[in-house]
Amino acid sequence: MKNKKLNFIVLFIALALVLYFTLKDDFHGIVSKLKEANAWIFIISVIFLLISLFFKSISLKTFIKEYKSDYTGKDAYVLTLIGQFLNGITPFQSGGQPFQIYLLKKDGLRISDSTNAMIKDGLSYQLALVLVGILTLLLNLKFCVLSKNVYINGLIFLGFGINLIVLILILIVAFAKKTGFKIANKIICFAFKFKIIRKFGTSEERVKEGLKHFYKTGSEIKKDKGSIIKGIIFNVIHLSFLYVIPFIIFKSIGINGISIVESVIATSFVMLIGNIIPIPGATGGIEYGFMQFFGTFTKGAVLSGSMLLWRFVTYFLPMIIGYVCLLLKKGTKRL
Predict the structure, then answer these.
(1) Most C-beta atoms within 10 A of its C-beta, which of 86, 229, 243, 292?
(2) Per-residue pLDDT reduced to its tens digit, 176-197
(3) At 98, is the secondary structure helix, strand, or coil?
């Protein structure tokens, strides 16, 4: 409970700072641009978000149905929305999967099965994220969306590198049991040495138990690669719809100087930076990244207003819907 309260406090402070620095120079101009936004086009951006999350939920359902054949698309969509809320209030989006595993247990899945399903879904998402990242970096060679700020560009490659390393580590743990255990033991020893983990024995056992799930999942993937391929495809579609949303928002404000491809490239770079910001929702860093990359196409109140609309659609709206779903979900306690 203390961690949840701390996360909320950090999020609200970061959000207050973002709003202050965004609005302080041209408050009336930004508000005026927001009022001028075309409501119908803005609604399309919301529809794109819901479609994006729909494909994310299809990926999740694909893996859950391997263990629970009667699991429905509606259940998967609700679970995905709840995950959006929990990810949104925790650093590095770390709170969603553990709670989703808990909810799947309430729905009749064994912990081991729900954990395996979430590992497969996480692996397919990570693969999709890296593939889209590679594609956008290649497309940038033609469209040149990179910021003039060398430090921001460095953060892009750092974010991409971290995601690639995470993917490699997941694959090593899943498919190479001995190597995975060695890597995990070195990490846990390092954490214990610097007092990051107080109870070494307990933590070591938990890590080994988690590795067993990864290795079991890896064995299942070897036998059925089709489900992972489906998951990757669904997650690529999910990211594609998500990355097009800024283009639609700019259209709602009347800006036509950006193409869909440029929107996808710029948003991909913004999200890569967001993945390394340790604040819930990557608040602060992700807004700054948006202003840097989309500042190539527009400036001033239009840019600031578009950023606020984008953050509402892609971050606050799914969190609100996810929280409502959590409250309505049977068998869960209110946070």
Answers:
(1) 243
(2) 656 656 665 665 565 555 444 4
(3) helix
